[in-house]
């Protein structure tokens, strides 16, 4: 009898175990497309090659990729962040702290895209090497879109630019372009403060500039923080909803360039142009069509809350890349998405890289050729804004130049065919011999 009573119990227990196994499910296998995409992306991110990367941590230090980043063990989870801000514009974290946050969140590729400035890139790159994070130099450029159509008003449009490890090809020209926008941001912020004072919401200009930080062009978020400190609003969201929104009672424009001209500038300086947060636009379909005609490469279609089908459809309709990020500012609170929280499918990153890598390859070649024509210290200093020597222990410009050239050739070797690479190497060898003599004098 006891055995008979026990038998059903064992049977129930066995069935329960079987059910639990079923609930867990089998691990889903990657499709062929996903496998190809993962391999291509991981090789770019992790330098996952048997002849250059070992699972042994002792060998990791000796292998650097095109960004001067140590290679990882293969098969790590790949987390990407393509939209983030620091205290160099309107973020709350310094570039160093942002990278630390990225590391804590498992981010492997971080695009720093401050508003109208690339000034945070060197600090971010220095910190990123400690954690083996790849930094994509980026910038979110403030522009204005003129519809040229009576019933479509002009509106502000933000365009993200993504550059290679060496930065833009015409860095001085781009910097002048961005400086004009930053100068306009000062005028714009002053006008906003003036409008707030007329609305009986007194805000001190000194407080706005103090919040922005030394040398940082103030934006609406800095004004909103000053309003919060002054007790005029309960939170930042309220400041925008009531006063600072596009066309709002305290809104003001600066000296933003035309959106189409900005897209062309990004292309001319070796960047990939992506429309930021199209869901914030009044006429996204119209603007996307016009910017595509100007040379736009892609649009943001992914956020931390997932894929936005409407914008994926718009991207596909215009043969544009789909990208996305958290737009992280580090302000905290339940309304902000965390860094790295926008989950991009690996095949989306793969499609982005298929467009970006040839553009970046040509950009690096152009920067290298320009340096070979004029191997001056001033030219090298421009390059050093985006690239820092990893192994050179002295301040000798010769050593830095050699190391930078080696890094360029390492990266180009993965992109160019043998004939083009050999031509570039011969030109490098010729100039290096002259460089040795000139620095030896």
UniProtKB/TrEMBL annotation:
This is Polymerase/histidinol phosphatase N-terminal domain-containing protein. The lineage of its organism: Eukaryota, Viridiplantae, Streptophyta, Embryophyta, Tracheophyta. Pfam families: PHP (PF02811). It comes from the Eukaryota. PANTHER family: EXONUCLEASE, POLYMERASE_HISTIDINOL PHOSPHATASE N-TERMINAL DOMAIN-CONTAINING PROTEIN. Residues 1-29 are annotated as: Disordered. Residues 80-145 form the Polymerase/histidinol phosphatase N-terminal domain. One of its GO terms (molecular function) is 5'-3' RNA exonuclease activity. Residues 16-29 have a biased composition (Basic residues).
């Amino acid at each position: 009898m006891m055995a008979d009573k026990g038998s059903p119990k064992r049977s129930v227990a066995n069935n329960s175990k079987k059910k639990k196994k079923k609930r867990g499910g089998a691990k889903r296998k990657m499709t062929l497309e996903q496998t190809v995409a993962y391999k291509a992306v991981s090789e770019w991110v992790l330098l996952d090659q048997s002849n250059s990367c070992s699972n042994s941590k002792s060998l990791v230090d000796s292998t650097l990729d095109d960004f001067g980043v140590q290679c990882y063990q293969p098969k790590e989870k790949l987390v990407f962040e393509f939209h983030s801000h620091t205290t160099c514009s309107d973020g709350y974290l310094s570039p160093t702290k942002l990278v630390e946050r990225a590391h804590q969140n498992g981010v492997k590729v971080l695009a720093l895209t401050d508003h109208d400035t690339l000034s945070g890139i060197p600090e971010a790159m220095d910190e990123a090497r400690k954690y083996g994070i790849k930094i994509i130099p980026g910038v979110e450029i403030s522009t204005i879109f003129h519809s040229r159509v009576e019933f479509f008003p002009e509106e502000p449009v933000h365009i993200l630019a993504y550059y290679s490890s060496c930065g833009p090809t015409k860095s001085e020209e781009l910097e002048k372009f961005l400086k004009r926008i930053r100068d306009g941001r000062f005028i714009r912020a002053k006008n906003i403060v003036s409008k707030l004072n007329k609305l009986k919401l007194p805000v001190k200009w000194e407080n706005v500039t103090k919040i922005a930080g030394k040398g940082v062009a103030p934006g609406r978020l800095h004004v909103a923080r000053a309003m919060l400190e002054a007790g005029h609003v309960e939170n930042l969201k309220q400041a925008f909803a009531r006063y600072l929104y596009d066309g709002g009672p305290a809104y003001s424009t600066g000296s933003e360039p035309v959106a189409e001209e900005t897209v062309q500038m990004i292309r001319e300086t070796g960047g990939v142009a992506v429309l930021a947060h199209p869901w914030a636009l009044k006429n996204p379909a119209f603007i996307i069509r016009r910017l595509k005609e100007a040379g736009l490469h892609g649009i943001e279609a992914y956020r931390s809350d997932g894929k936005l089908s409407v914008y994926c459809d718009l991207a596909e309709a215009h043969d544009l890349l789909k990208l996305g990020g958290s737009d992280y500012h580090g302000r905290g609170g339940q309304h902000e998405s965390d860094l790295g929280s926008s989950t991009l499918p690996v095949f989306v990153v793969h499609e982005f890289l298929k467009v970006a890598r040839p553009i970046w390859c040509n950009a690096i070649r152009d920067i290298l050729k320009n340096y070979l024509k004029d191997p001056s210290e001033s030219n090298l200093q421009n390059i050093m804004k985006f690239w820092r020597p990893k192994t050179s222990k002295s301040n000798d410009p010769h050593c830095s130049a050699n190391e930078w050239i080696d890094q360029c050739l390492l990266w180009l070797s993965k992109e160019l065919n043998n004939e083009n690479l050999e031509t570039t190497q011969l030109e490098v060898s010729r100039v290096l011999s002259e460089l040795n003599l000139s620095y030896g004098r």
